[in-house]
Amino acid sequence: MSPKRPLRFDPIAEARRQWEVRGWGAPASMAAATSIMRAQQLVLAGVEAALREFDLTFARYEALVLLRFSREGRLPLGKMGERLMVHPTSITNAIDRLEEQGLVRRVPHPEDRRAILAEITPVGVDLVERATQAVVEAEFGLGDLSEAEADRLTREIRKMRRAAGDFED
Amino acid sequence: MSPKRPLRFDPIAEARRQWEVRGWGAPASMAAATSIMRAQQLVLAGVEAALREFDLTFARYEALVLLRFSREGRLPLGKMGERLMVHPTSITNAIDRLEEQGLVRRVPHPEDRRAILAEITPVGVDLVERATQAVVEAEFGLGDLSEAEADRLTREIRKMRRAAGDFED
DNA sequence: CATATCTCAGATATACTGATATTT
DNA sequence: CAAATATCAGTATATCTGAGATAT
Q1: Would you tell me which of A103, B30, B101, B163 could form a disulfide with A124, CB atoms 3.0–4.6 Å apart?
Q2: Distance in Å from the first CA to the final CA of chain B
Q3: Can you give the pTM of this predicted structure?
């Protein structure tokens, strides 16, 4: 981790100013995209720090949560990749690792013999619940954002996600 | 690239519902953090697709832009790492690559002989301007977000960044 | 001597390409 | 035969740790 002290100015406001000086176009979009990238660095750093003691990465934690939320604790690997927006080989790799850790096991799909299900184990259920406590205590890397602010943020990003074709609804 | 079709529901709204069912705490923060992570995937995918023809990654593009915006087209590597919030060895690596591509060169720091400056070359200046055009045309992966929506998004994220200690201002 | 800056070697995580086996 | 599912081999990128060289 890098507990870097805060800058004494907003680097994105500064970048936007420079962007306009150069006449580079769409400065509002640049600022929004850069904001998203930087916010993600902060969230990822905060969450991964909380997950370290459980030997989980963010990607593997997300996979565990997804399985925990599924009706029967199992999902086809392909479906998991779609939902998490990751490459098929990345899911194979993540499930390999979770299986080594005893948090998940592979079981054959009952109807489609091409597909394989990942199923969360009791150990996995226990771990994901403890890891979640730690992530909540770390405030998801958001700092002390109020509930109202978090909701406004979620709503604004939701517009962007819809514009970018993430979902239809 | 993966031109995946949109889901027919908002996966984050669904995750939030499940999160509350399990009684996992801070659902508003979970939704905000997950929104940031997912938005970043969309932006990164859009921008990297636009940068591919220039043989640039997002990280190297950011470094070029930072140099382009500096007063004299050069900055110490350490300062670049701070500004981009990346590990010192990652900057070394990125500058190695940009130097191989002829977009940047290393020059000694005139006052502090420990430090090394990365300086953008004329070829680098030309490339970063052309790459920027492509990124703007790709709308930064934001889809057709209006300027007002982009500004609102930037403002909401700014609150989060301040709460997370990204800057003081 | 302590600190700062950068680099290197080695390890891990993720992603992508292209190929393959199996099943639908 | 075409499409879908998962895997594998190989490559690339980025991150981090720990060590070391050089300079302040």
Answers
A1: A103
A2: 39
A3: 0.94
Q: Which residue of B has its CA nearest to A30?
A: B140
Q: How close, in Å, is residue A43 to chain B by CA atoms?
A: 6
Q: List pLDDT tens digits, range A44-69.
A: 999 999 999 999 999 999 999 999 99
- Nearest nucleotide to the CA of A96, by C1', is D7
* Positions of E strands within B31-115: 74-76, 104-108
How far is the alpha carbon of B168 from chain A, nearest alpha carbon, in Å? 5
- Do A146 and A127 meet the contact criterion of CB atoms below 8 Å apart? no
Q: Which amino acid is at B49?
A: A
* Cβ-Cβ contacts under 8 Å, A164 against chain B: 39, 42-43, 46, 141-143, 145
CA atoms of A158 and B121, how far apart (whole Å):
40
Which regions of B35-76 does DSSP assign to beta strands (E)?
74-76
**Mean pLDDT on B98-102:** 94
The Å distance, CA of B93 to C1' of C4, is 20
d(CA A49, CA A3) in angstroms, rounded, equals 11
Inform me whether the pLDDT recorded for B5 exceeds 80: no
Residue A7: predicted pLDDT: 81
In the predicted model, what is the mean pLDDT of chain B? 93
A111-140 pLDDT, tens digit per residue, is 999 999 999 999 999 999 999 999 999 999
Q: What is the pLDDT of residue A162?
A: 95
The identity of residue A97, as a single letter, is R
Chain B closest CA to A75's CA: distance in Å?
15
The answer, yes or no, to whether residue A42 has pLDDT greater than 70, is yes
Beta bridge partners of B120: B104
Q: How far is CA B166 from the centre of its chain?
A: 15
Question: How many angstroms is C1' of C21 away from CA of A88?
Answer: 16
B35 closest CB neighbour out of A25, A46, A158: A158
Residues A97, A93: Cα–Cα separation, whole Å:
6
- What SS3 state is found at B94? helix
